[in-house]
């Protein structure tokens, strides 16, 4: 049924996270950096709570990682005061994946779809999403620069992490929500074979200046998270900035034979017996 042992494990995790009603209901529970770690870990499959991006921000801050500045949070999106926002800002849902319902705004333009939106347009789209999903909040956050102080669509540094160990780093140089190129590296920035096939092949590129900070923070977060997760960062003028946790990357699909072998070997070695 499944193309590989790695894909099967990811689908078993999807079942355990999304199809267990006891686990599913924890997604809307809000936690804070000031909460003791015992509070974070007092529920079944506690890592699932970090699929809520409010919680993932707080968890990262608990372990002294930088996150984008937060301008506003909530579901009453008609109350967003756009006049108080900078020219560049990001809106994203607390629950979701694949950058759906993300607005990467520069003035009136959303860089993710290259369309212009009025404030009323944005409120209309967000209001519809909130009406459709009663579990949903939105975050209005800082649009982080790159290391040169410029503001293109941020490059993603996606770190495949296993209980404090790093299997590989995937760089996605985005040109749109689902467009861009990708390349893969080990933690010493040696280029690896392709691990996953979602994006076109990209050229080899230099390591970000904040690579060591990024690696140290990924390892610290991964050790706390315990089970396998992809941990995403941005390389900015203020260093490595945390993005999110992804416990089921690409739903386990589209990984190359090299990638499947690499990741399942790390899983078996560093997360034995873990979901």
Could you describe the 3D structure shown?
With 275 residues, the protein is an alpha+beta fold. The chain has two domains: 5-29 and 149-270, D-amino Acid Aminotransferase, Chain A, domain 1 (2-Layer Sandwich); 70-142, no CATH class. The chain has seven helices and twelve strands. It has helices at 5-18, 21-24, 37-40, 53-62, 119-132, 211-225, 257-270, and strands at residues 70-74, 88-93, 103-106, 109-110, 115-116, 138-142, 156-162, 165-174, 180-185, 200-201, 229-236, 239-246. The strands form two sheets. Strands 1-6-2-3-4-5 form a six-stranded antiparallel beta sheet, with no helix packed on it. Strands 10-9-8-7-11-12 form a six-stranded mixed beta sheet, with helices on both faces. The longest helix is centred in the C-terminal third of the chain and has 15 residues, at 211-225. The protein is globular, with a radius of gyration of 18 Å. The chain starts with a helix and ends in a 5-residue tail after the last helix.
Task: Please sum up the structure shown.
The chain is an alpha+beta fold and 275 residues long.
């Amino acid at each position: 049924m499944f193309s590989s042992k790695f894909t099967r494990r990811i689908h078993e995790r999807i079942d355990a996270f999304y199809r267990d009603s006891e686990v599913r209901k924890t997604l809307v529970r809000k936690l804070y950096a000031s909460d003791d770690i015992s509070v974070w870990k007092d529920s079944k499959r506690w890592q699932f709570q970090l699929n809520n991006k409010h919680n993932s921000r707080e968890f990262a801050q608990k372990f002294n990682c930088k996150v984008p500045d937060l301008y506003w949070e909530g579901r009453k999106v008609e109350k967003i005061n756009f006049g108080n926002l900078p020219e560049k800002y990001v809106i994203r849902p607390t629950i979701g994946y694949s950058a759906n319902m993300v607005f990467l705004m520069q003035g009136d333009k959303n860089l993710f779809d290259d369309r212009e939106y009025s404030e009323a347009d944005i409120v209309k789209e967000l209001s519809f999403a909130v009406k459709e999903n009663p579990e949903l909040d939105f975050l209005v956050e800082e649009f982080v620069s790159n290391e040169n102080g410029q503001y293109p669509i941020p490059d993603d540094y996606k770190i495949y992490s296993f209980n404090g160990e790093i299997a590989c780093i995937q760089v996605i140089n985005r040109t749109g929500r689902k467009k861009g190129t990708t390349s893969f590296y080990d933690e010493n920035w040696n280029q690896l074979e392709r691990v996953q096939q979602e994006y076109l092949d990209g050229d080899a590129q230099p390591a970000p200046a904040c690579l060591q900070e990024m690696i140290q923070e990924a390892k610290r977060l991964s050790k706390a998270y315990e089970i396998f997760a992809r941990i995403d960062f941005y390389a900015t003028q203020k260093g490595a900035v945390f993005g999110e946790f992804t416990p089921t990357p690409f739903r386990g699909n589209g990984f190359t034979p090299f990638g499947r072998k690499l990741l399942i070997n790390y899983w078996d070695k560093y997360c034995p017996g873990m979901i």
